[in-house]
Amino acid sequence: MFQSATPFGGARVTGTAKGTQGMEGLENTTVTAVDQLATLYGRPSERVLRKEIDHVDAMGRAFIAASPFLILATGSSHELDCSPKGGDKPGFVQVEDDGRTLLIPDRRGNNRIDSIKNVVEDPRVALIFLVPGANETYRVNGRARVSVDPVLKRRFAVDGKEPTTVIVVAIEQAFQHCPKALVRSDLWKAGKGDRPKGVPTLGDFAAARTPGTDSSAYDADYARRMPSELY
To answer: Residue 204 belongs to what H/E stretch?
Structure first.
């Protein structure tokens, strides 16, 4: 058995040598109030506090222009969603001249449209832009709407194929994010090699959920179809 002191009021929690705890122990070590976090984390520097602005400036515009990939977080009364969005080339997301509006083409996917449904109900969105090889990321928070404006859709046509919709984001917060997470994960170096052994493919996931599915055949068929289904 072992004991560990909590940072709140000196309470102590008892557990086993292997680190397993009963429900009572878990409750005693769960942060339940924002004020408690001050005992765990230091205060951010003034520079960190001041980096947030309400528009995309020249530096943010340059980062977005170099980014071929973002992650979009949305929510609604019935679900949360975090979806990858990728373009045919860097700069697939456009920043309007005033720096206060982003335009994101919604390319073909699997038609679950979880993020699109969420935006229709709740416009709040959060985005993280990534640039391969750069450990910094760029974050934008705001409120979005789903547009079918034919003029907007034509702006994003690729080989004559327009996106089904365009997500229009009114920017409320924008700021760069420190590179520590990507440095710790060594993300870009790891991504340069061959596919890691043992990582499940789409076919593996399909076979696990639908007995009798041939995972290799599934992957081969998907690879054959994918080039014609990107746009």
So the answer is: helix 202-209
